[in-house]
């Protein structure tokens, strides 16, 4: 096992425990000092577009009675982590394990918890010219798309924005041994998941998406051509985590207090909210914690 990785995760765990004890000890003082404050949060687009994040943050404020508000910046996971690291935001919701690990190992962020998961899915036209539905795994699915693209039979729409979805796509291309960069059939949307799905749907193209966003649009009748062609529990599990910035702008007791209260909420009341309101779209982590945490560790060590 990677010694540096194990040491980093040990230090992260110790810091989280110490922070929790420190804040718990000073609970009364921080409650008195809170007043009316706001905290900037960066988030992956999928959680925002589905309405999950707003529901969680609003319910957190209502259930705790805190006199505060969150300012939410909607970005891809790569940009969300960058903003977190430099202190532009103090909390971030992301789903890109390999990027998260880099920031963890640099000491710029602290993981509060993994709180939810679903799946990425490979989408495409129903006639499936690349025979993706017959693939052995997600890596083989991407090989098939590449070969079909080279024959002029398929197109692929990438988000191209260094989001969690884009990072997972890059990982799969890397594992496939093929690079689509510069190919005429490989298109970049440079936009969020919803817009990318609309483009792929209009072009009868393949794309990678979190399953929740696809189902959300499909149930509203907003997609005419895209269907789910492939799932893979190994390469396509989609893990959502929340992080705290270790930067100077966020280095204050009020921010820590809110962050640890939010962590507690996400692992208790927030789990039930996800289970009830987003059944079929997003899964609370509590029923599969060991499996999901292990999946995060495996994905974090694979370079895209």
Question: Would you write up a description of this structure?
Answer:
The chain is α/β, with parallel strands linked by helices and 304 residues long. It folds into two domains: 3-118 and 239-300, D-Maltodextrin-Binding Protein, domain 2, CATH 3.40.190; 119-230, D-Maltodextrin-Binding Protein, domain 2 (3-Layer(aba) Sandwich), CATH 3.40.190.10. The protein has 13 helices and ten strands. The chain has helices at 3-25, 27-33, 45-49, 52-64, 77-85, 97-106, 138-150, 164-176, 193-203, 211-219, 253-266, 269-277, 289-300, and strands at 37-43, 68-74, 91-94, 109-125, 156-158, 186-188, 207-210, 226-230, 237-245, 283-284. Strands 1, 2, 3, 4, 7, 8, 9 and 10 form an eight-stranded mixed beta sheet that branches. Strands 5-6 form a two-stranded parallel ribbon.
Largest sheet report: 8 strands, mixed
Q: Choose one word for the global shape.
A: globular
β-sheet strand percentage: 15-25%
pLDDT averaged residue by residue: 91
**CATH top level of the largest domain?**
Alpha Beta
What is the terminal-to-terminal distance? Answer: 20 Å
Please trace the helix and strand order, writing H or E for each element. Answer: HHEHHEHEHEHEHEHEHEEHHEH
CATH H level, superfamily name of the largest domain: Periplasmic binding protein-like II
CATH architecture grouping of the largest domain: 3-Layer(aba) Sandwich
How much helical structure, as a percent, in the residues? 40-55%
Radius of gyration, in angstroms, nearest whole number: 20 Å
Q: How many strand units?
A: 10
Number of helices: 13
Structural class: alpha/beta
């Amino acid at each position: 096992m990677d010694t540096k990785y194990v040491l980093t995760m040990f230090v992260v765990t110790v810091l989280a425990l110490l922070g929790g004890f420190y804040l718990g000890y000073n609970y009364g003082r921080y409650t008195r000092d809170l007043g009316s404050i706001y905290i900037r949060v960066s988030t992956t687009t999928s959680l925002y577009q589905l309405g999950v994040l707003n529901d969680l943050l609003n319910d957190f404020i209502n259930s705790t009675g805190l006199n505060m508000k969150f300012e939410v910046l909607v970005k891809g996971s790569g940009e969300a982590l960058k903003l977190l690291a430099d202190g532009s935001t103090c909390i971030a919701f992301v789903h890109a394990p390999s990027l998260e690990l880099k920031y963890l190992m640099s000491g710029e962020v602290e993981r509060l918890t993994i709180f939810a998961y679903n799946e990425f899915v490979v989408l495409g036209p129903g006639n499936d010219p690349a025979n993706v539905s017959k693939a052995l795994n997600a890596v083989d699915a991407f090989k098939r798309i590449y070969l079909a693209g080279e024959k002029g039979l398929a197109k692929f729409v990438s988000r191209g924005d260094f989001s969690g979805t884009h990072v997972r796509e890059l990982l799969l291309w890397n594992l496939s041994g093929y690079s689509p960069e510069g190919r005429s059939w490989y298109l970049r949307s440079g936009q969020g998941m919803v817009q990318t799905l609309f483009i792929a749907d209009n072009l009868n193209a393949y794309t990678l998406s979190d399953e929740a966003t696809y189902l959300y649009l499909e149930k509203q009748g907003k997609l005419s051509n895209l269907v789910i062609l492939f799932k893979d529990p190994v390469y396509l599990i989609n893990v959502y985590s929340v992080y705290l910035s270790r930067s100077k702008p966020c280095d204050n007791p009020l921010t820590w207090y809110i962050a640890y209260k939010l962590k507690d909420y996400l692992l208790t009341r927030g789990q039930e909210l996800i289970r009830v309101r987003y059944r079929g779209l997003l899964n609370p982590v509590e029923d599969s914690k060991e499996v999901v945490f292990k999946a995060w560790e495996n994905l974090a060590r694979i370079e895209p």
